[in-house]
Amino acid sequence: MSDNNAAQWIQALAGSIQDWELEKIKNEDELKDAFSKDLSFGTGGIRALMGIGPNRMNVLTIGRASQGLANYLLKTGCSGETVAIACDSRIHSSEFSEVAASVLSANGFRVALFPNATPTPLLSFGIRKMKCCAGVSITASHNPKEYNGFKVYGPTGDQATDALAQAIQTEIEQVDFNEVKRTDIEGGLDNGTIFWIPESISTAYLDEVCGQAHGIPLGSIKAIYSPLNGTGFNLAAKLLNRVDANWEVVAEQKDPDGNFPTCQKPNPENDEAMRLGSKQLKESGADLFIANDPDADRLGVVVMHGGDTIKLTGDEVGLLLLDFISRVKQCEGAIAYTTIVSTPLADILARKRGFELRRTLTGFKYIGEQMDALEEDGQIGSFLFGFEESCGYLSGTHVRDKDGISSLLLVLECAAYHKQYGLDLIDALAGIYQELGFCMGRQISFELTGPAGRHAMASAMRAIRAQPYNAFEKAIRVTDMYDYSRGTHMPTSEISQSYEDLPLLPPSNVIELRLEDDGKIILRPSGTEPKLKAYLFAIAQSGEDAKNRLDEMETALRSRLAAHFKKEERRLRQNGSRNIVIRWLWLTAVATIQLCSVKAVP
């Protein structure tokens, strides 16, 4: 795009952009990427950098997305119904939510606005409670401060899955920026077409969550809590006080702040985001540090064990919670859900405890979709638990999305349950490993920015598909490849379950490589960020052997992809393209289990 086009965007966005956004497009690569394409739906809705241009989140692209959503809803017979809108604590989030409200109101919808920065699970609950036809969350979840997003929810309170997202995307693509309708927010508030969501919705949410408690006394557990400068504090504080929890907050991270001053990436999977809370945990002598991400749908856990702090992975927390629930609830006929990239130990646990585990594609929206299917069949009571490896968990049917607030209570109950037997969560996890076997996972991301990066990511997936059995060094032998791009039936822990009776997963750009030692390597491009994600699982006789095997797998994978990217970079240079920018990102620690003092889990 030309500088004249950029100048037009700057003029159109005057008053709604900040100096750092103007500085960004002075960089030639940034300018090129900002005008390289239009925004589109990914795994978690539309999520992108904020800034100037059609490939950035700004009031014009938010307006266009809102108009596309309005057009879709009008075509499906929802005229005059209510749409709920929430936002997180990010830069521009409140402004973007008002733009969405203005557009939807101008198109004849009643708009219910949460008055403050709001946890995403409360939006899902509110949609269901108020019987809305749709919902919008302005959030980029756990991404760095420069990002924002436009996440759409359906009438059952779950995220837009593939068919709905594609239908909305088609409508958005037909909207010209000049065709976006707008109305005055204040006028809408005066005439009632726009209204503030009352406090009674959050009260009803807390009633539901507290009603799901398992009766485990929490007095023995002291917890440190942080919302990571996001939306979680007010709702979490009310919940913790209701259940008489013993807790304190990380003061520097208590208040909403879209600059996220204590960490560059407010993701509870990252050590940096958990550093302050872990320090407070060690100094206070508490049992746990628990943190929500900025929109409070995810949750991270750090445990005090043997005088040191140990951060659990998302898989480890999911396994602990699934094990705990299976101990305190009736599991016969129950169904739990996780994703194809979550720990294989969940299947073994399901078979031992007598419930079924089913696996969806990556993204909690697919678990929400399966909950809807259970409800349609009159079987919602069979839902036991859902989790994904990226720190998302759900117990209960009050929402259709991962819920970091209700999971806060669940983690405390799990810790209190085990403490009554003299165990902390590290001891409990070691006991699960001793019972089920040692399966350790590691997640690696390869960040590839800009148009050239996107091309390199796609070509890497093509190369692995073309030669899966010769993809790595001899130490890593691939025995089978499962290509989810062709569609496949949902994996289940039930060996006797008829394969054809299971739901068919929609096609997805995911490759699963199964190794001769029962390990796995799963590759998929992120749907929301410029990353190629790899999930490694190793099964061995001991934790040390599993760690060593993961090291071998990681070395082989890095070597294979680095060689491919260098080859691709040379080819692009010969064609006059700029370099691919590649960064290796650690998202998940290796093993967190210390097996020197294993205690039996009762």
Write a structural description.
The structure is a single chain. This protein is globular. The model is unreliable at 578-602 (pLDDT under 50). The protein has three domains: 38-198, Alpha-D-Glucose-1,6-Bisphosphate, Chain A, domain 3 (3-Layer(aba) Sandwich), CATH 3.40.120; 204-436, Alpha-D-Glucose-1,6-Bisphosphate, subunit A, domain 3 (Alpha-D-Glucose-1,6-Bisphosphate, Chain A, domain 3); 438-586, TATA-Binding Protein. It is 39% helix and 20% strand. The chain is built from 18 helices and 23 strands. The strands form five sheets. Strands 1-5-4-2-3-6 form a six-stranded mixed beta sheet, with helices on both faces. It has 602 residues and is of the alpha/beta class. Helix 17 (450-466) crosses helix 18 (543-574).
Chart the SSEs and their pairings.
Blueprint lengths: L2 H10 L6 H6 L3 H7 L11 E4 L9 H17 L6 E6 L5 H14 L3 E4 L6 H10 L4 E5 L8 E7 L8 H12 L11 H7 L2 E3 L3 H12 L10 E5 L6 H10 L3 E4 L21 H14 L3 E5 L6 E7 L2 E4 L2 H15 L6 E5 L5 H9 L2 E5 L3 H13 L6 E6 L3 E3 L9 H16 L5 H12 L1 E12 H17 L11 E6 L4 E2 L14 E2 L5 E5 L4 E6 L5 E10 L2 H32 L6 E6 L16
Parallel strand pairs: 2-3, 2-4, 3-6, 7-8, 7-9, 12-13, 12-14
Antiparallel strand pairs: 1-5, 4-5, 9-10, 10-11, 14-15, 16-22, 16-23, 17-20, 18-19, 20-21, 21-22
Helix pairs in contact: 4-5, 4-7, 9-10, 10-15, 12-13, 12-15, 12-16, 17-18
Sheet of most strands: 6 strands, mixed
Distance separating the two termini: 65 Å
Q: What best-fitting shape do the alpha-carbon axes yield?
A: globular
Task: Report the CATH architecture of the largest domain.
Answer: 3-Layer(aba) Sandwich
Question: What is the CATH T-level topology of the largest domain?
Answer: Alpha-D-Glucose-1,6-Bisphosphate, Chain A, domain 3
Low-pLDDT runs of 5+ residues are 578-602
Strand portion: 15-25%
The tally of structural domains comes to 3
Question: How many helical elements?
Answer: 18
Strand order of the largest sheet: 1-5-4-2-3-6
Radius of gyration: 24 Å
CATH superfamily of the largest domain: Alpha-D-Glucose-1,6-Bisphosphate, subunit A, domain 3
On the 0 to 100 scale, the average pLDDT is: 90
